[in-house]
Design goal:
Elements: E1 3-4, E2 14-15, H1 27-49, E3 57-61, H2 66-70, E4 82-88, H3 93-100, H4 127-133, E5 136-140, H5 142-154, H6 165-174, H7 179-186, E6 194-196, H8 205-211
Parallel strand pairs: 3-4, 3-6, 4-5
Antiparallel strand pairs: 1-2
Helix pairs in contact: 5-6
Length: 216
């Protein structure tokens, strides 16, 4: 496993574990995506225990796309689950790549408050899966992420902006100017079951307090 020394002091070695691929570094990101997939296996088991089937829509946040690539778990023949990829408007490398038909980088600076999703280049490992496996892709402004943080807080879920991005993406799609078209294409009705994945808590307590002052 590759490592880099991050300090000149002889305090040992530090491992760099990334979920994106670069030249000479591909095996570990594959393991990371496989690890992400266990999330959905555990969700399946919990839904089955409640007598529920597969969700109708899954929203997954995208930085370089590796978590969303793991959502291929739901792209099984015969399953009708729709997968929505969500990323910041300021770092929408997946959406731009889908529009271009090939991986397309987004120049920095990537300054979204969804800090964990500030990826300017889609992972080569994730790209083929995303290109063929997403039902929709949406890039959202920071304000939508803040709205999603507040919405989740009302449901007693403490989530930072990156963690709430999936909820923000569905707000942008299903309550925004293209809501009618998006609902029709995704087959969303009042009876639909939606799966959101919150990938972080209040990682920036000061920002969280500003966004959800009643929780401060």
């Amino acid at each position: 496993m590759p490592w880099r020394r991050l300090s000149a002091r002889p305090r040992g070695r530090h491992l760099v574990i990334s979920d994106t691929v670069w030249t000479g570094y591909g095996r570990v990101p594959t393991w990371v995506v496989e690890g992400y997939a266990t999330i959905f296996m555990e969700i399946d088991a919990q839904l089955a225990a409640q007598g529920r089937g597969q969700p109708d829509v899954v929203a997954a946040q995208m930085g370089v796309g590796s978590l969303a690539a793991a959502v291929r778990h739901y792209r099984v023949p015969g399953w009708q689950t729709r997968v929505v990829g969500v990323e910041p408007l300021r770092a929408d490398c997946v959406l731009r790549s889908l529009e271009a038909g090939e991986p397309t980088a987004v120049p920095g600076p990537h300054a979204s408050i969804m800090a964990g999703l500030n990826g300017g280049t889609v992972s080569p490992l994730a790209w083929p899966v995303l290109q063929g496996g997403l039902s929709a892709s949406v890039a959202l402004p920071d304000g939508r992420a803040e709205q999603a943080v507040r919405l989740l807080a009302r449901g007693a879920v403490t989530s930072g902006e990156s963690g709430a991005a999936g909820a923000g993406g569905l707000l942008e799609l299903l309550a925004g100017p293209l809501a009618a078209e998006a609902r029709e294409r995704l087959g969303v009705t009042p009876d639909s079951t939606v799966l959101l994945i919150s990938t972080e808590g209040a990682t920036d307590p000061e920002a969280y307090a500003r966004t959800v002052p009643e929780k401060a």
